[in-house]
Amino acid sequence: MTAAVLFENVSRHFGAVKAVDAVDLEIAAGEFFAMLGPSGSGKTTCLRLMAGFEQPTGGHIEIFGETAEGVPPYRRSVNTVFQDYALFPHLSILDNVAYGLMVKGIGKDERRKAAEDALAMVKLPGYGQRRPGQLSGGQRQRVALARALVNKPKVLLLDEPLGALDLKLREQMQEELKSLQKSLGITFVFVTHDQGEALSMADRIAVFNDGKIQQLGTPEDIYKRPQTRFVADFVGSSNVLSSATCARLGVPAKAASLRPEAIAIGTSWAEQLSLPGTVTARSFLGATNRVSVDCAGEKIIVASPAAMPVPDIGAEVQLAFSRNDLHLMEEA
Amino acid sequence: MRSDRSASAPLGLKIAAIGGLLFLHIPILLIFLYAFTTEEKSYQFPPPGLTLQWFAVTWNRPDVWAALTLSVKVATIATAIALVLGTLCAAAVSQTRFFGRETISLLVILPIALPGIITGIALRSAFSMADIPFSFWTIVLGHATFCIVVVYNNAVARFRRVSGSLIEASMDLGADGFQTFRHIILPNIGTALLAGGMLAFALSFDEVIVTTFTGGQQSTLPIWMLEELIRPRQRPVTNVVAMVVMLVTFLPILAAYYLTRDGDQIAGAGK
Amino acid sequence: MSALATPAAITPNRPGLTGRLSDFLWKHPHVLLAILLGPPVLWLGIIYLGSLFALLLQSFFSIDDFSGLINYEFTLSTYKQLLSDANFDIIVRTITMAAVVTIFSALIAFPIAYYAARYAKGKWKAVFYLGIMLPLWSSYLVKIYAWKLILAKEGILTWAFAKLHLLWLLDAWLALPIIGGNSLSVSYTGTFLVFVYVWMPFMILPIQAALERVPGNLIEASSDLGGTPQQTFRHVLFPLALPGIVAGSIFTFSLTLGDYIIPQIVGSSRLFIGQAVYAQQGTAGNIPLAAAFTVVPIVIMGLYLWMAKRMGAFDAL
Predict the structure, then answer these.
(1) Closest-approach residue (CA) in chain C for B242
(2) How does pLDDT run across B164-185, given as a tens digit for each residue?
(3) ipTM value for the complex
(4) What chains are in contact with C, requiring at least 3 Cβ pairs below 8 Å?
(5) Domains and CATH numbers, chain B
(6) Does residue C3 fall inside a structural domain?
(7) Please, are residues A301 and A260 in contact by the beta-carbon 8 Å criterion?
(8) How many CB atoms are closer than 10 A to CB C174?
(9) What is the β-pairing status of strands A273-284 and A264-265?
(10) Domains of chain A (ranges plus CATH)?
C-alpha cells in the first residue's frame, strides 16, 4: 500500500540552522500519526513541509505516491488546522467553512450544504451566521476542523491543535478527534509538545529532537522502551540509570531506563532486582507520592501509589522492580 | 498610561490642557465666522454684520472653480498613484523578509521628513534639467511622491494585524495567489487603504509648498489662496474659500478616523 | 481508506494564465518581491532621490557673475558665499526661531498630551484624539490665513486687548526691539505665534505615545514615596516623556527650518532659510546658492536625527 506521506532523507536548513536534518519517515494511509518534541525540534517544520508552506533544501517528499516538492500548498490535497486556527475574521462561520469549496468553483447551494454538514459533524449546527470573533476558543477550534475536513483532504495536518484549550476541553477534544479520525478514515498527522496527548491519541509517534527523529514507534514502544536518553527523559520522565548502577544490578549495559511507577518501595521478591537507598525528598501529587531516593549517588524518582505508606526523609529503603521494566539503551 | 485609582486631574493641568485645545481650535472657528462678515476691506472684529451674499459671489467666480477642479483632479490622480505604490511597498516590507527593509522605510518617509521646500526645489531643478515642461503632470508627480508615505503607514499598520497564517490558511484551502489576494488580503486591508487614500487626498488637496515649484501656469486651490494672501484682491471671497477648504479637508479625516479607530491609529506623523 | 470520494493527492495546474502565473510566482518568491518593490523603489529612487542628488550636485557649481549662467565646474565658492555675513545671519535667525518654536511647542503640547494619556477616558479620549488630529490635518494655508485675521491691527486680538484695557501692554510689547514691530502681523512675535500654532500639534502625538507607555502606578509610587508633584515631574514623568518630546521636536524643528510661506505672510522683511532658497532659485536665478542653502537644513536634520536616535526617540514615533 502506498504511504500517505513519505520523507526520503528530507532536510530543511535555514542558513546554518538545520531545522529538519535528513529525516526518513513513512506515514501509512489512515493512520493517526503524532510528531512529538520540544519547541525547535523540527516537528512543526516537518508539518509545514507536508502542507507545502516550506520547501525542502534536500531530499524527496511524496504524498500518496506523488512527488510533492515544488508543488504549492493550493495544489495539494492536504489541509491544515492551524495552531491559532487562522479563521478569516471578515467572513461568517459558514463562509469560512465553505471557503475551500468556493475557490474550487463549487456552486453556492452545494457548498452551503456541505459546509452545514461539516458544522453538524463538529457539533456546531446552526452557528453558520456568526463571526469568528463571537465564538469561544473551543468552538473556533471545531470550526477550523470543519473548514479543513469539508475539502475531504487525503491528509489532515493539525498543528498543536489543542494547545490553546483548557484541560477539560482538551481531554474531551482528544476523544472526539480520535473517533472522528476512525470514522472518516483520513490520515491525521498532528504536532504536539505534550507527550500525554501523543500517547493517548496516536497510532504511532515520532519523537523529534534537533531536527532528527529520535525514535519512531507505537505509544507503548515509546513509553516503555525508549531507545535514547532524550526519549526516556522527554516522554514521561524516566529514570536513566548509569552503567555503574546497571553493573551493581548485574545487568551489563551502557545505560538503562526505568519508569518511576514501575518501582516499589520496601518489599522485594526473589525474582526482582533491588537497590538500597536513602529517601531525600517526597511530595504528594494526588494519585501518587513522588519520592526521591539517593542510591549510591544516583538519584532515582519513584511514583508510589497514594495508598502505600510513604517513608520519612532520611529513611533507608530498598527499591524493587522487575527485570522486564528495566529497558537497556545503546547510548550512554 | 493607566491608573488604577481614577483620580481626577489637578486643576492646573486641566486648565492647561483645555487651554491648549482652545488655542488649536479658536482660529479655525474664526474662519467660519469671517465667511459671513459684511466687511469687505479689512479684517475687522467683531464683524459689523453677517451676510450670505459672499457665498453667491464665490459660487460665480470662474477662477475659484478652475482652481478647485484642478486641485480635485491632481489629488485624485496623486492618491491613485500613491495607493498603488504605497500598498505594494507595504506588502513587500511586511510580508517578506529581505535585506535592506529599513532602508525602504526610510526612503518612503524621506519626502515628508525633509522640509517641503527641498523636495520642491529638487524636483523643479530636475524637471528643468531634463527639459520637462511644467504641467498638470509635474504637479501630480510631486504630490504622489509625498503621498506614498501616508498610504504606506496605514497599510503597514494593518498588514501587521493580519496574521501571516491567514494567507497560509487560504492557500492551504486551495486558493492560489490571486484568489488569496482577492478574497483574503484585500477585504482585510481594504479599510486601511481607504483611510490612507483619504488622508493622501487631504494632503494633496492642501499642498502648497511643493506645488509652487512644480506647477506652471495652473493654480491649484492652495496656490490660488496663497496669491490672495500675498496680494489680496477680494477678501470676502478668500474668507468663503478658506471655510470651504477647511470643510473639505475635515470630512476625509473624520472618515479615516472612523475607518481605523478599532486598533490602528491614523498616522498623524505623516504630514 | 474508507469509501470517501478520493481526489488525487496533487491536483494539476489550474488552467489559464492566472493559474500558471500564480504557480510561477509561488516558485519564485524573488520575482514576486521584485514586482512588489520595483514600482515604488523606482519611483522614489529615480524621481525623488535622483532629483535630490542632482540638486546637491548643483551646490558644487557656481554662477557666472556676468552672464548669470551656471558654470559647471567643481568649486566650493558657493559654500564660501553661503557663509558670508548676510547669509550666515539668515541661517542663525532660522535656527534660533526653530529652537524657540520647538521649546514653546513642547510647553503647550505637554499638558494636552499628559491629560489625553492619563485622564481622558472613553468618549473624552476620542474628543481629545480628534481635537488634536483635526487641526493637525486641516489646511496649512487656511490656518495661516486665520492668524492673519487674528493678528491684523483691526482684528480680534487688538479688540480683546482693548476690551481688557490692556492696549498699553500690546503697544509696549511692539515697541520692544527685534521681537516688536509696527503691528503683530509684521513682527517676529507674529511669525513665532503662527509657527507654534501650525507645528505644535505634531509635538502632541509623540509625547502622548511616550506617556501612554508609562504605567500609572509609577506616578503613584513616586508620590507614595513622598515625592512632591514637582519632584515627581522632574524625576519620573519628564525623563520618561523625553523620548516623545525629542521625537516631536524632530517635526517642529524640521518643519520650521524649511518653511518659507509663514514668514512671507506674517513677519518682517528679514529672510529665513526657506525664503532665501526661494528667492535664490526664483528671482536671483542662482540655483547653486539655493542648493547650498538647502544643504543647511539637511545637515542640521541629519545631526538632529542622529542625536535623537541615540536618545531612543524613534521608539516613540
Answers:
(1) C142
(2) 788 889 999 988 888 888 898 8
(3) 0.81
(4) A, B
(5) 9-51 (no CATH), 61-270 (1.10.3720.10)
(6) no
(7) yes
(8) 17
(9) unpaired
(10) 3-226 (3.40.50.300), 237-329 (2.40.50.100)
